[in-house]
Specification:
By secondary structure, this protein is mainly α. It has eleven helices and no strands. α1 runs parallel beside α3 and α7 packs antiparallel against α8. It starts with a helix and ends with a helix.
Length: about 240
């Protein structure tokens, strides 16, 4: 039965678009995992699911623990997480890359978007290829886009709907965004998000060039040529992005 379950989960994930993975995990796969009594088998499947979906195993494990909690205590536990992060918490030991100001603004605009305001497919592609977010924030952005694709606005949903809310920092982010709601008001949402994506991509490209230039020190002749060619290619990409701004 376990190999069959492994096969079924693999097929489910591989046949689901990236934007739909958080909902698939929350509504189908995690409830399956909850029925497995063999801890070793469950751990093996969680690792496999994480590899296939790109969603960290820590988030999957926390959502599984949340599912196992009595419903009367679960919401209280989540709310208490917004006030404190216990030193013994597994999540407190995870190194999460903070959002830059541009990335925070992008997440905010995705959160307050209405379905008709943005092209979710285009944003998803750029987000996956040109934006270097920590997996925690990346998964949250994907969940927002999935919600928009389904015809709903993220900010109008119950926060517990999002699998990423198992991490206390996500709940704190929601609180911050609600406080700053007026700052994200705009009738040109699509243009604003496109510009933010371009600016974030530009910064990533320039940071890459800075790192490459550092590698020139002490590099061999062959490596120097390869690094300079890489810098030239990135500069061409930067010029293309700047034209779109």
């Amino acid at each position: 039965a376990k190999p069959l379950l492994d096969f079924a989960i693999t097929k489910k994930i591989e046949s689901t678009p990236t934007i739909g993975l958080p909902r698939l995990l929350k509504t189908e796969i995690i409830p399956w995992l909850d029925k497995i009594n063999d801890r070793l088998a469950a751990a093996t499947l969680i690792n496999r699911i994480s590899q296939l979906s790109g969603i960290s195993k820590e988030l999957i494990e926390q959502e599984l623990r949340f599912l196992k909690q009595p419903k009367t205590n679960a919401q209280a536990d989540r709310l208490s997480d917004t006030k404190k992060e216990p030193a013994t918490s597994q999540q407190s030991t995870i190194n999460i890359k903070p959002l830059s100001l541009l990335e925070l603004e992008l997440i905010g605009h995705l959160y307050f978007s209405e379905p008709e305001q943005i092209d979710c497919d285009s944003v998803s592609k750029v987000l996956a290829s040109d934006v270097d977010l920590d997996p925690l924030w990346q998964n949250l952005a994907i969940e927002f886009l999935e919600t928009l694709t389904l015809g709903a606005a993220p900010y109008k949903q119950e926060k517990s709907k999002f699998i990423s809310t198992v991490e206390p920092r996500i709940l704190k982010l929601f609180g911050y965004l609600e406080q700053k709601k007026d700052a994200f008001g705009t009738e040109e949402r699509s243009a604003k998000i496109s510009r933010l994506l371009s600016e974030i991509s530009l910064k990533k490209q320039r940071d890459t060039i800075s790192q490459l230039k550092k590698q020139l020190v002490g590099a061999s002749r062959e490596d120097t040529e390869n690094i300079l060619n890489a810098i030239k290619s990135i500069n061409t990409s930067i010029v293309d992005i700047e034209k779109r701004l």
